[in-house]
Design brief:
Layout lengths: L3 H10 L4 H7 L8 E4 L2 E4 L7 H10 L2 E3 L4 E4 L12 H5 L1 E3 L11 E2 L1
Antiparallel strand pairs: 1-2, 1-5, 2-4, 3-4, 5-6
Length: 107
């Protein structure tokens, strides 16, 4: 379990804005990350390493079992939506060095 100090840091990190979260993402995570509304979502086709999982957790992300993605609220806390936020807000890939088309919207 987390120490009180770690929990306080986790709660503080959940208030980071979208650009601050993107800047702090592990380099192995950025190709799997995208923006939905103002939140950062991360989806892997495989289970990431424990180092990556620990980084996601310490950054303030949480696992959404229903949507099967890691999510970071970027300071905007909302109850679970009864609809798929990807349909309402769209999906924007996060620009990385590997991305040939920065901020390309996905369908």
């Amino acid at each position: 379990m987390y120490s009180p100090q770690q929990k306080a840091q986790w709660q503080s990190n959940r208030r980071l804005d979208t650009s601050a979260v993107i800047d702090r993402l592990h380099p192995d995570v950025k190709p799997h990350a995208y923006i939905v509304g103002s939140w950062v979502w991360i989806s892997f086709s495989h289970k990431p390493s424990s180092e990556v999982l620990n980084d996601l957790k310490s950054l303030g992300s949480n696992w959404n079992k229903k949507r099967r993605v890691w999510q970071h609220p970027c300071g905007l806390f909302r109850p679970e939506a009864p609809y798929d936020p990807r349909q309402k807000y769209g999906v924007t890939r996060i620009e990385t060095e590997e991305s040939p088309e920065p901020n390309r919207s996905l369908s």
